[in-house]
Amino acid sequence: MAPASSLLSSRSAVSVRGSRAAQVQGARRPSLARSQSRGGRVTGAPLSVRAVVMDPGEQSKPRTEAIQNNTNPWSAESAVPVNKKARGEPVRIKIDAQWYDARGWALAHPGGERWIHFFDGRDATDVFYALHSYGPNGSSKAVDRLAKLPKCDAPPPKELKKPTPSEYATSMSFRDFRGKLEKDGFFERNVFKEAWALVSVLGLYVSGQYFAYSNPCVATILLGLGMVQAGWLGHDYVHGRGPLCDALRYMPTLMNGHGVEWWSQKHSMHHTFTNEEHLDNDVMMEPFFFLRPPSESGRPDSKMRKFQHIYGYPLLSIMFWLWRFHSVESAWKRKDKKELMFMAINYLWLAFCMPWQVALGSVFISGFVVASLVSATHQSEEIMEYGEGSEYVEGQFRSTRDAETVFGPLETWIWGGMDTQLEHHLFPTMPRYRYHALRPILKAWAAANNIAYRSSPSTKIISDNFNLLKTVAAAP
After folding, report:
1. What CA–CA distance (Å, rounded) separates 301 from 361?
2. Bridge partners of residue 99, in order along the sequence
3. How far is Cα 451 from Cα 174, in angstroms, rounded to an integer?
4. Secondary structure E strands in 331-418
5. Side-chain half-sphere of 410: how many Cα atoms within 13 Å?
6. Does the pLDDT at position 45 exceed 70?
7. What is residue 36's predicted lDDT score, i.e. its pLDDT?
8. Who contacts 376 (Cβ-Cβ below 8 Å, separation ≥6)?
9. Chain centroid to CA 240: how far?
10. Cα 367 to Cα 369: distance, rounded to the nearest angstrom
11. Which one of 44, 250, 347, 424 has the minimum C-beta count within 10 Å?
């Protein structure tokens, strides 16, 4: 997950495309100067790179065909496809080696019709298994539905959006890798760890409530930390699949006032099109944050840009309030009575069960912590210009960096699993307590496939993000 930011652009070794000509004052983004962490010990069978033979005359896929008219962060609007076909025309998507005609399924798709059209003529295998229930991750609901779709031939060449040879090789190897992790039990949920995570969050809320009137400062900190951890845990539930995650899906709505349906749509766009302008709202937060200068992006400027390194981090504290605003707005428009009921309970609790200073302060603290951490793992990586992004797997390596915590177990706990951001982006339905064990194995797979695995100390990432704000603030 990630909040506000976009960044200066260039290319690293993992990219298969040329470097962008425009650079800010000739400088490259700080992330590209960092050392790339590789290696790690792999248990079990050795990993290898799959040989790939592409058809002669193979062409890379064209631009992602989507449009977003309103990119202001106050708007909850997100991108919609522009290649939407007339009703009755085939909409072909590829999962594994099979093409499906999803024209009839598009309107019934639980995530919305637009997702089907985004992948018309494309291989959606890696995105499908990343975000859907397919058996090993706790439920087979989505893959069972997929089996009922009508099969079809590949689309005509003019509609076919093929990956590059590099992207294809990476995806094929990654699918083998995913299968190995499934066999090794990485997607299984541990009932004791799940119970401890939930009890610890409830403990922070109960403790904060206990001190709300007798010691408001302590209560504000405890509730703020509780909201942070509830956010991480709710994030895990919404991504997760299976009976437990289904039962606790609305926990973040009840405890933090965050609407699940709005957030899920926003966050799935972020996962699918990470750091792609106009598709990933988390890198489109102008005029509050400019992480590419207008001289490069061509978008309107703001007089406040030159001060963004001063107000940038403090402003992140409004993130949970912004999410609350969009959550209520979305639930009201959809007439979602369940979400509105849970939000009402949350707001009644904040209004009548603690001093107003505690209520406001805890939301500001939690928003600041979450926004500061999760933005760090994407901001200093590559931003893809509109329609330029890679296929799913290679795109995650280009746009995401792991954080190496430096202050011990307390810092790791505060990160809530998001220090392993790359592991999460590649396997979002995997329980977050599996990611640290996965990290060395993923590093080894990346090295075997000649992909740069990006990882830096958490202090370095935060420092580089501040310097990025400052560099863009000074740009013409």
Report:
1. 32
2. 94, 152
3. 11
4. 402-404
5. 2
6. no
7. 36
8. 403, 458, 461, 462, 465
9. 14
10. 6
11. 44
Determine the 3-state secondary structure of 406 from DSSP.
coil
Judge if pTM exceeds 0.90: no
Under DSSP, is residue 276 helix (H, G, I), strand (E, B) or coil? Answer: strand
| Structural tokens at position 441 | 């194995």
Rounded to an integer, what distance in angstroms lies between the CA atom of residue 286 and that of residue 302? 9
β-pairing verdict for 455-457 and 402-404: parallel
Can you read off the two tokens belonging to residue 307?
A: 């001060």
* 101, containing H or E segment: strand 98-101
Rounded distance between C-alpha atoms, residue 202 and residue 208, angstroms? 10
Tokens encoding 261: 């349906």
**Could you tell me which of 71, 458, 474, 456 has the C-alpha nearest to residue 309?**
474
185 CA to centre of own chain: 23
- Counting every residue written for the chain, the total comes to 476
Confirm if 289 and 4 have CB atoms less than 8 A apart. yes
Q: 5 - beta bridge partners?
A: none
Identify the sign of the CA torsion 22, 23, 26, 28: negative
Which amino acid is located at 71 in the chain? Answer: T
H or E element that contains 92: strand 92-95
Find out whether 440 and 42 touch, Cβ atoms under 8 Å: yes
User: Rounded to the nearest 5 degrees, what angle is found at the Cα of 305, between the Cα atoms of 303 and 311?
Assistant: 115
Centre a 10 Å sphere on the Cβ of residue 345 and count the other Cβ atoms it contains: 14
CA distance 288 to 370: 18
- Mean pLDDT score, 201-227: 98
Of 140, 48, 97, residue with least CA distance to 449? 48
- As given in the structure block, the two tokens for residue 332 are 């009201």
Tokens 């977003």 -> residue: 68
419-431: string of b/e by CB count within 10 Å (b at 16+)? bbbbbbbbbbbbb
Distance CA 94, CA 90 (A): 13
Structure tokens at 256: 């933090």
Average pLDDT, the chain: 84
Query: Measured between alpha carbons, how far is 464 from 31 in angstroms, rounded to an integer?
Result: 8
Q: How far apart are the first and last CA of the chain?
A: 31
- Of 169, 471, 156, which is closest to residue 296 (Cα–Cα)? 471
- Separation of alpha carbons 222 and 389, rounded Å: 40
Amino acid at 399: S
Say if residue 62 is preceded by a cis peptide, omega within 30 of 0: no
Q: Which residues contact 371 (CB under 8 A, 6 or more apart)?
A: 3, 4, 316, 317, 319
pLDDT tens-place string over residues 364-419: 999 999 999 988 888 888 888 766 778 999 999 999 999 999 999 999 999 999 99
β-partners of residue 70 are none
Buried b (16+ CB within 10 A) or exposed e, 22-54: eebeeeebbbbebebbeebebeeeebeeeeeee
Number of neighbours of residue 377 by Cβ within 10 angstroms: 29
Q: Residue 239 and residue 236: Cα distance in Å, rounded?
A: 5
